[in-house]
Amino acid sequence: MKTKYSHLLDRPEWAEIPRHMRNTAELYLLHGVRPGNFLEAVLENDLAGAVGRADHYNRGALAAWVDWCFWCLPSRAWGSREAVANWRGLEGGSDE
């Protein structure tokens, strides 16, 4: 289903995200649904935590995750524990 934010999921960075993680990432972006430990560490800019929690697909895709955060997420949706805790999603009340 297309939404006004679908363009963020059509970017080339999205194609590099492991398929088994796309639903979780989309739910976070659009609705602020808390992700699992790996993605939460990525979003909080916690490299050691992300590497320690990554499965082999995500470990190989860490650069893609950073690209996705930088190019597809609003800056207030990632980068620190506080930003992640406060994010409510694009469709959940956070403005673009």
Concise summary:
With 96 residues, this protein is mainly alpha-helical.
Question: Which key features would you list for this structure?
Answer:
single chain, 96 residues, mainly alpha, 7 helices, globular
Can you give a write-up of this model?
The protein has 96 residues and is mostly helical. It has one domain (6-86). The protein has seven helices and no strands. Helix 3 (37-43) packs antiparallel against helix 4 (47-53). The protein starts with 11 loop residues before the first helix and ends in a 10-residue tail after the last helix. The relative contact order is 0.19. The model has no long low-confidence stretch (mean pLDDT 92).
Mean pLDDT: 92
Helix content: 40-55%
Q: Name the beta content range.
A: under 5%
Number of strands: 0
Determine the structural class based on helices, strands and strand pairing: mainly alpha
Spell out the blueprint of helices and strands:
Elements: H1 12-15, H2 22-31, H3 37-43, H4 47-53, H5 56-60, H6 62-72, H7 81-86
Helix pairs in contact: 3-4
